[in-house]
Give the backbone structure.
Amino acid sequence: MNKPENGTMLGRSTAGRNDRTASLLLDWYDRHRRLLPWRAVPGEKPDVYRIWLSEIMLQQTKVATVRSFYRNFIVKWPTLTQLAKAKRTDVLRLWAGLGYYARARNLYACAQVVMGQYGGNFPDTEENLRSLPGIGSYTAAAITAIAYNQWAVVVDGNVERVLARLYTVEKPIVETRPLLRQLATRLTPQDRPGDYAQAIMDLGALICTPRSPKCVECPWTRLCKAHSTGTPECWPRKKTKAKKPRRYGVAFWIERSDGAVILRRRPDKGILGGMTEIPTSVWYDHPLSERSVRAQSPIKTHWETIPGLVRHSFTHFNLELTILTAEAERTPKDAFWCPKRKIKSEALPSLMRKVVALVQTAQNSS
Ligand code: SF4
């Protein structure tokens, strides 16, 4: 994105006001910045590999959840070169439980491209960063600003909330994204753009929180229009949420006499792509008929139903899985046996870990 010149895109007084607004935030950041494992401390050069890794992990995921996954990755693969040389299955395995698994596949693909096409150095322009697997507009801007301290407009959900309050934007965020971006563009200073990006993220995470903003601690209290109304938590304006649809499926738990369990790899494309699963049926918007279960079961056998259901929430739907169990010695097509004690070291997403947990509970109580 082109940066605005003071006094050209903006009037001089508006530009001056925006500079003062940014500078209040930067002063606050100098005193209250979060200590994050991927963040450079003052005087230290930011490490683009760490910033990229953290930004990919933080997409749709909270800092508190990311910390331990980030630490595991950095301990195992401290540099991009080491990550690029890793086996993809090991990367997926360490990602298991963090969700949104396309991120892990793209992370690995991105490491290969940066090694192969850029000699192991991440490009330093938003445009070139955006051409890499898994890096969209937000992540490209965040890396440009934070790792290279270059001017870039970083707008995520936190920033949108803060700006919707600062300027009392009266329509829900989904309807006002271009306006919010314009406001963010005007506020982003030419001096210290990297610190500014991190400062507004910290403000959203620590002070201007969704339910109960701590306005008395905010550097923008005197400027904030939502604060002056007395009910800042009423911004951003809400859009009525459609109820999430529910889907239904069946998981087939097949155990051998030596206690090994059948697993298989999900196709790369689609939900939980590339991850390991306990074989499951297709997920429908209605419970499966017996005929459908028979048609999709990996082996022809007599199935027992485990008491209880596994419930899991995805971004766009809720899922209910019934678990069927059976014993077998044959290996179904495209599947493999895994000793039960090793099952947790497989690249099992959270949904599959819930399946394992429910089966174990049922087996322990029988
Ligand atoms: S004054 Fe309150 S509502 Fe306004 S930006 Fe600060 S924390 Fe958010």
Observations:
- The chain has a mean pLDDT of 94.
